[in-house]
Amino acid sequence: xxxxxxxxxxxxxxxxxxxxxxxxxxxxxxxxxxxxxxxxxxxxxxxxxxxxxxxxxxxxxxxxxxxxxxxxxxxxxxxxxxxxxxxxxxxxxxxxxxxxxxxxxxxxxxxxxxxxxxxxxxxxxxxxxxxxxxxxxxxxxxxxxxxxxxxxxxxxxxxxxxxxxx
Length: 166
Ligand SMILES: Cc1cc2nc3c(=O)[nH]c(=O)nc-3n(C[C@H](O)[C@H](O)[C@H](O)COP(=O)(O)O)c2cc1C
Fold this sequence. Notes:
Helix 1 (27-39) links the parallel strand 1 and strand 2. It is built from 5 helices and 5 strands. Helix 1 (27-39) packs parallel to helix 5. The chain is an alpha/beta fold. The chain has a 5-stranded parallel β-sheet, sandwiched between helices. It has one domain (2-164): Flavodoxin domain (Rossmann fold, 3-Layer(aba) Sandwich), CATH 3.40.50.360. Helices cover 33% and strands 21% of the residues. It starts with 15 loop residues before the first strand and ends with a helix. The longest helix is centred in the last third of the chain and has 18 residues, at 147-164. Flavin mononucleotide binds next to helix 1 and strand 4. GO terms for molecular function: FMN binding; menaquinone-dependent protoporphyrinogen oxidase activity.
């Protein structure tokens, strides 16, 4: 999975960065790969981002699986370290065992408080076999994200491109 990170698009014209953490099954990384390809975005883990890196980008995507009702704590930690932004555009995505968009609220609040303008968000189901789920069902959402999810993620990125004329 490491080769997915540090993926630097030499042809990037739009200055897009995606900060993604995908620790459970790599589910969110599957989505991140599709979106970063469509947007010619650079893709990094939170631990690889320095607060000044943001100056190089016009649009930042924040993503992870949902763990206990919200995005991964490392994203919140990183955002706290950032300087106040002046309407820097951002978008959010995630995978989770249920598609409940309110689980984005905490991250959206954190970003808005830091001066980000959150322009869009995307969510889909991801395979989960954590805790008792493993013993009773062998996991839920098998093979998710699937082809349809990846297509929807690509459409989401295409919408952003249209919206921002990039
Ligand atoms: C510790 C843990 C907590 C989780 N909590 C939630 C949750 O609160 N709500 C939910 O819908 N899914 C929850 N999930 C399922 C994950 O969000 C889902 O499997 C996601 O696709 C994992 O993404 P990743 O493979 O990119 O890490 C949890 C999974 C783990 C391992």
